[in-house]
Amino acid sequence: MNAKIVGHRGAALVEPENTLASFHRAVADGADILECDVHLSADDQLAVIHDKTIDRTAAEDSPRRTGAIADLTRRELDEVRLVGGSSIPALDGVLDIAAEAGIPIYVEVKAVAAAGRTAQLLLDRGLAHGADDPHQAPAWIISFSQEALRIARAAAPRLPLAAVTKEPDAAFWDFVQEIGAQAVSLPIRTLSDQDVDRACELRLDLNVWTLNETELLRRAADVSAHSITTDDPAWARRVLEGSGT
């Protein structure tokens, strides 16, 4: 089985993360799946950004350089300039890129408040299906937050879900079964054979993150991960196809 390459925040090693340029680059560089992060603004708009504040990613010359996403309106977020002159995208814009490329997208809900709105947007766009055949699904919701995943499942029962964790303990595996998740997403550096076996036993897809080193990429191939998340899709493809290091 060939692992699918997931463009982490687009192609975050070569373009500013979670920008439209980064997602376009990931597509151009051969990503099989896009991955983005989503928060909810003060006026209930879905903003694609990893952190709960703009402080880390705002450029030094940005008109607005600090503040929490939850405290800023969409208009205020539009005042933020990221490195390279990009702005913070709306989730709709990133979904458009995935749709135009004909590839799936993993939408990582970072704030619980964004879960219901994200699920509803995917429903409205006809993307909230595929739980019975997740390899054909156009969109997934993934999250570290069990509450967010519960909200998403209630709002969109046919939407594939992936539970993300750094520590897959017994309670995590119980939750995965309770929620009816289609996949688990685990860190490659601490991935154990027991984790791999448990995912296989439960018939769950296994995603591993974040792979930017050849040794880790080969480890993912060895355990037959269904998908691998990387900041550099072009590099990952070269390594997996045996033409790079």
Automatic annotation (TrEMBL):
Residues 3-240 form the GP-PDE domain. InterPro entries: GP_PDE_dom, PLC-like_Pdiesterase_TIM-brl. Gene3D superfamilies: Phosphatidylinositol (PI) phosphodiesterase. It holds the Pfam family GDPD. GO terms for molecular function: phosphoric diester hydrolase activity. It comes from the Bacteria. PROSITE patterns: GP_PDE. This is Glycerophosphodiester phosphodiesterase. GO terms for biological process: lipid metabolic process.
